[in-house]
Amino acid sequence: MLRVAMPNKGALAESAAEMMREAGYRGRRESKELVVVDQDNDVELFFLRPRDIALYVGSGTLEVGITGRDLLLDSGAEAREVLQLGFGASTFRYAGPPGVASSVADLGGRRVATSFLGLVRNDLSDKGIDAEVVRLDGAVETAVTLGVADVIADVVETGTTLRNAGLAVFGDPILQSEAVLIRPSGGGDNPAVDVLVRRLTGVLTARRYVMMDYDIRVELVEQACALTPGLESPTVSPLHDRGYVAVRAMVPRSRTNQVMDELYEVGARAILVTEIAACRL
Ligand SMILES: Nc1ncnc2c1ncn2[C@@H]1O[C@H](COP(=O)(O)OP(=O)(O)OP(=O)(O)O)[C@@H](O)[C@H]1O
Ligand SMILES: O=P(O)(O)OC[C@H]1O[C@H](OP(=O)(O)OP(=O)(O)O)[C@H](O)[C@@H]1O
Ligand SMILES: [Mg+2]
């Protein structure tokens, strides 16, 4: 049975659970459930603290897990990313009161509060900066007001928390994070993991693409297909009226309306867009 580490709470938990449900796996019946056995899919889901997931996977205790890239790197665990999951995007950044620092180079001898000790220590040492790192569990933005630190390093999504604390980012982002599927670094082939990766890739594709159908005169089909090349090649089918063909192709969801406008200009009619419920590429 494939054993999967899932975030039990926090910013990634709901989207991770939703994605696994869309991929056909059983979900939790209530939020306190710690282990879900999905006999039909031969999978066992362990709901763990997001911060602990890289440790379970890195040690090989669990074969695969969903966590944030920042948490993976912070942990120093022997695990690697196998798939980017397209949710939970954030940046990890330094921030401080205006005027305190304008780049990481200004941090020598300063106190940096963070709950990502490994990440910040590595970044400072890579840049040759000797600063004191103050480890906190959360709400690190308040550490500056309370005088525990001069600056902070933390997850920034909308920037609202920073603004409310009167802090501003400085320097380059330490990293861009998002939710990722991870495996043990040295792990060899595992067909059950391959199935999970294919299912999740299917969910990502179904979210990123729509199916587009249209009719077009035969002599214009090449021009139209150039606008809708599909993933491999569009399906072109004859219509009862031999002067026309029907074309079917996957189109990036974000371009749906532009592509319809362009197709209409070329002469396509009866342009229909449908959702992709599930797919395997
Ligand atoms: N707005 C956000 N706030 C916090 N973490 C976020 C946000 N957006 C994405 N993430 C990602 O979620 C992960 C943090 O998970 P965590 O469970 O600590 O979330 P949390 O919401 O901070 O929960 P907790 O209540 O335990 O602090 C990191 O990988 C982080 O990059
Ligand atoms: O840029 P924003 O959209 O404001 O989001 C980022 C904030 O959200 C998280 O805090 P969380 O609510 O998880 O509290 P914590 O700091 O105690 O983990 C994170 O630690 C930042 O503080
Ligand atoms: Mg948090």
TrEMBL record:
Q: Return the broad EC class.
A: transferase
Q: Name one GO cellular component term.
A: cytoplasm
Q: Name one Pfam family in it.
A: HisG
Q: In which pathway does it act?
A: Amino-acid biosynthesis; L-histidine biosynthesis; L-histidine from 5-phospho-alpha-D-ribose 1-diphosphate: step 1/9
GO BP annotations of the record are: L-histidine biosynthetic process
Q: Which cofactors does this gene product need?
A: Mg(2+)
State the EC number(s): 2.4.2.17
- Describe regulators of its activity: Feedback inhibited by histidine.
The Histidine biosynthesis HisG C-terminal domain sits at 206-277
| GO MF annotations, alphabetized | ATP binding; ATP phosphoribosyltransferase activity; magnesium ion binding
Q: Which domain of life is it from?
A: Bacteria
User: Which reactions are catalysed by this chain?
Assistant: 1-(5-phospho-beta-D-ribosyl)-ATP + diphosphate = 5-phospho-alpha-D-ribose 1-diphosphate + ATP
Alphabetical UniProt keywords: Amino-acid biosynthesis, ATP-binding, Cytoplasm, Glycosyltransferase, Histidine biosynthesis, Magnesium, Metal-binding, Nucleotide-binding, Transferase
UniProt main location, coarse: cytoplasm
Family matches, as SUPFAM superfamilies: GlnB-like (SSF54913), Periplasmic binding protein-like II (SSF53850)
Limits of the ATP phosphoribosyltransferase catalytic domain: 49-201
Purpose of the protein: Catalyzes the condensation of ATP and 5-phosphoribose 1-diphosphate to form N'-(5'-phosphoribosyl)-ATP (PR-ATP). Has a crucial role in the pathway because the rate of histidine biosynthesis seems to be controlled primarily by regulation of HisG enzymatic activity.
Which NCBIfam families does the UniProt record give? Answer: hisG, HisG_C-term
Q: Which family does it belong to?
A: Belongs to the ATP phosphoribosyltransferase family. Long subfamily.
What HAMAP family does the record point to? Answer: HisG_Long (MF_00079)
- Record PANTHER family: ATP PHOSPHORIBOSYLTRANSFERASE, ATP PHOSPHORIBOSYLTRANSFERASE ATP-PRTASE
- The protein's name in its UniProt record: ATP phosphoribosyltransferase
